[in-house]
Amino acid sequence: MLLIIRKDHRSICLYAAQQIAAEIRQKPHCVLGLATGSTPLGVYRELIRIHKKEGLDFSQVQTFNLDEYVNLPKDHNQSYYYFMKKYFFDHINIHPFSIHIPDGMAEDIETECLRYEEQILEAGGIDLQLLGIGSNGHIAFNEPFSSLGSRTRIKTLTEKTRRDNARYFASMKDVPKYAITMGVGTIMDSRKLILMATGQRKASAIKTTVEGPITARVPATIVQIHPYATILIDRVAASKLTQALKIAE
Ligand code: F6R
Question: Based on the structure, what is the number of domains in the chain?
């Protein structure tokens, strides 16, 4: 596990975008795993800039998003489909059929989850997965006590995650209760992981993720045993670490 601490959110976003751009240049038909949320926004902004200014080519890239709310129409402004289009896909030359996001409106959610797993396999697996982390240590919507071997499935969101996400909805009662999410096992099958976190709100989760024992109580701790995981954090998110070894500026 490589731990990289940079001074602020902007610098970690630039670093992550460089890693993704390098992956695409080295393997133009690579498969990217993508996350939503506030943390990766700067990564998408920088990738769009690299695409526009340096010609980074997404025409052969395939993407799989980590998760999507259940029962929120695609065109709802808080659906992850809407988010990805607005902040990333509408600004690069990716083919619409290369974009994969779980369908939270599917009639048969169980079949949709199986289909998603199959699509990842058919694409050859995820080369590089971008991850955020919840303040409770969730990755994707794998909340505390999710099975560390889990696959794509429907999950009930915890009150804490619903409260964290309430800022994006008109009121708490509008925050969805369920989501389809890649499982912890699905995420761990990715060839490389980049987990990003910034700010005080993430400092405790980062301390446990990096220094704590591996436990389903904090699903992100599993990344400790991934062969190519990078934990990319700012100084504030790193502030509770006691064993930080690599400080990169
Ligand atoms: C989003 C996702 C979530 C977020 C996490 C952090 O696709 O899977 O696990 O990465 O909730 O969200 P932010 O970045 O908004 O703090």
Answer: 1
